[in-house]
Write a structure and sequence with these properties.
With 381 residues, the chain is of the alpha+beta class. It has 11 helices and 14 strands. Strands 1, 2, 3, 4, 5, 6, 7 and 8 form an 8-stranded antiparallel β-sheet that branches. Bound molecules: zinc ion.
Length: 381
């Protein structure tokens, strides 16, 4: 009896042991698996496998960490000649799919099938898509991690203080706070920054990956004043995105950009004079127009940003922080633009526009004189 129990125990162990490893199924065995980074343009996944029957199908499955309601899993079909011994690879060309920020974590696994129907799923593995051209240092405070490779600890601390001050200012004035951790990559200059981008434009000062909660920016000691402003602006976009993200609807551009401008801490004269000229010439754009993406024409674009800043400033000063918090929460429910404004302020876009623009046209007008700023060129991929 004891002998029977012991042999049964070993039989169960053997079955468990055979079921546990993920790298062999039936007669399929993975000899090796590796990943090569071609940052920022590509990642190549390699696999080497053997089987007693011909391997006929190999697929790579992968996901990246992104803010979202649906778990998005991608599947790539690997092209190879069926054989009992296969070395195959698949290149993820990000020039076609769009890029990932530095430090993005890719989770991947393989599915291999042979001609007898054996199927092997490898266990999940992770690959960090780093910009290995530089030796990165890091600094973390609460939910923000800063990565940099050039400049002293006090330079990084200066930028970290800027981000923390911007977060406090935003929370105090709008109630918006970071929900998830974010990363900020500080490149030492523009050419280093452009080397991290897939289709670099010379004018780009940085890129914001809102879905990944990541800001990538070039800040040198000569443009640190601009850098502080740009970081506060982009940080606000990340917070606003986290606060309002839903599967149904976005928020109007004037609110999105207006909050970012409001929270910069300073606004450049180019914007204030664009606003003053439009008031004087009666050429103000309406909030309805500013609900859509802004014009690419520089003069209209400056005016769009300036008006958006002023409209948000008006809403916060007139109706207070709690209403702004409520507005963001209403958008997070997937509300339409007009319904959200009606729910919170009792006015739709058109009525709010009339009320706000009437205050601009009064001679004693809004507080235009108190607006500083720094122009910046940040792109969203
Ligand atoms: Zn912006």
């Amino acid at each position: 009896m004891l002998k029977k129990i012991v042999s049964l125990f070993f039989a169960v162990c053997l079955v468990l042991f055979m079921a546990l490893p993920a790298h062999a199924a039936g007669s399929i065995t993975v000899k090796s698996s590796s990943v090569e980074s071609g940052f920022p343009n590509s990642v190549t996944f390699n696999i080497s496998a053997i089987s007693s029957a011909q391997i006929t199908d190999i697929r790579l499955h992968y996901t990246t960490e992104q803010l979202g309601f649906a778990h998005v899993e991608s599947e790539a079909f690997v092209v190879f000649t069926p054989s009992t011994s296969v070395n195959a690879s698949w290149k993820w060309d990000m020039r076609k799919s769009g890029g990932l920020p530095p430090g993005a974590v890719i989770t991947y696994w393989w599915t291999i099938t042979d001609s007898t129907g054996n199927k092997l799923n490898t266990s999940e593995a992770q690959f960090k898509f780093d910009d290995t051209r530089f030796k990165w240092l890091s600094l973390t405070q609460d939910k923000t991690t800063l990565y940099w490779y050039n400049g002293s600890q006090s330079f990084a601390q200066d930028i970290m203080s800027t981000t923390q001050n911007a977060l406090v200012r935003l929370a105090n004035d709008t109630g918006a706070t970071l929900q998830d951790p974010i990363r900020i990559y500080l490149y030492a200059n523009n050419s280093d920054l452009l080397g991290s981008m897939i289709f670099p434009q010379d004018w780009t000062g940085g890129v914001s990956f809102t879905e990944s909660g990541c800001i990538v920016i070039g800040i040198s000691s000569s443009n640190i004043t601009w850098g502080r402003t740009a970081i506060a602006h982009e940080l606000t976009h990340l917070v606003t995105h986290q606060m309002t993200f839903n599967p149904y609807s976005g928020i109007p551009t004037w609110l999105e950009e207006g909050l970012a401008m409001y929270n910069q801490g300073s606004v450049d004269a180019t914007f204030t004079s664009a606003l003053q000229n439009a008031i004087a010439n009666n050429t103000l754009l309406t909030l309805k127009t500013l609900s859509s993406p802004f014009s690419a024409y520089a003069n209209i674009s400056y005016l769009s940003y300036a008006e958006s800043w002023n409209a948000v400033d008006y809403l916060i000063k007139t109706y207070g922080k709690d209403k702004m918090t409520q507005l963001l929460a209403t958008f997070q429910q997937g509300s339409t633009y007009d319904n959200a404004l009606l729910t919170v302020y009792g006015k739709d876009t058109k009525a709010l526009n009339t009320e706000w623009q009437a205050t601009l046209k009064k001679p004693a007008g809004n507080t235009l004189s108190s607006v500083p700023m720094g122009a910046f060129a940040l792109a969203t991929p």
